[in-house]
Input
Amino acid sequence: MAEYGEIVKDFKSKKLAPIYFLHGEESFFINNIVALFENELLDESQKSFNQYILYGKEIDIPQIITTARKFPMMGDQQLIVVKEAQDIKDWKKTQSIEALLHYLKTPVPSTILVFAYQHKPLDKRSKLAKALTKTSIMMESKKIYDNQIGPWIQSYLKSKLLTMNQKGVMMLSENIGNNLQRLSIEIDKLALNLSEGQQIDEQHIQNYVGINRDYNIFELQKALSYEDFSKAFKIIEYFTLNLTKNPFVLTIAQLFAYFNKLLIIHQSSTKENHHIASLIGVNPYFVGEYLNASKRYSLPTVLRNIILVQDTDLKFKGIKPFASPPNGKEAALLKELIFKLMH
Output
């Protein structure tokens, strides 16, 4: 199983394989490798003859194999990229899979075939996965852990010759989470609007990303930490008036994650800042707020609050009864939840 950095390094060194199978939940690494092949493998003069961009919904496996068996025109290589490969309609057809397995044994050396199988991993138990592991460069693109988000943001910013203050990093990580594709898009947006070497702060994020510096999930968690009911209620009011930017489901997920971090703190025998930061996946700079919250919310209260968040999620999905009118469901649920969490 190949790693992202290894594939990029080999590509730059012109160490290429005839088949690449990129799969998994995290689109960022898959899309980056696909872009690398698309943009840099062939000269512009070669692309119109020898580069094929196919889409899973529009193609089947026999058509891919037929294209792969062609020889390049007026060049040494041809590139075939199958985007959204998870949507190929005949993955479960025995005849098609057998044809692909046969091609894996004897691929055309002048063809570089790249599958971008996104949003989920290929079943590792399948005959195809086992064959791909032996005959191709196979990479599983996994979601990063929460405690890796901050360092990843800083690393990506560095590649853009930018820096960001700690509160800005926290705003992005708490509001976007570990969706690297979206994080990279938002950071690219910031890079387009700011100068090299400039430090990004909360105002820049508000202006160019659209996360309000005063009314966001990070500030809501801070209000919960200090039991500032007035501020928490104002933030929830803002959320319910801007549900497209602050989806209900995302708010619920982030509140669950917040109280889960407090649960981890309660269960830890050591309360040293760097140890806690590592456990809950936040910068040591912000650990004080979480430690403060763990003192305000006892272990029984934290457990109760986790259940309250779960119950609210079930009510929203209609699994538990809720008496609010349909058009005000999100607002009523969030206001009720915040009141219960803080009382």
Summary: The chain has a mean pLDDT of 92.
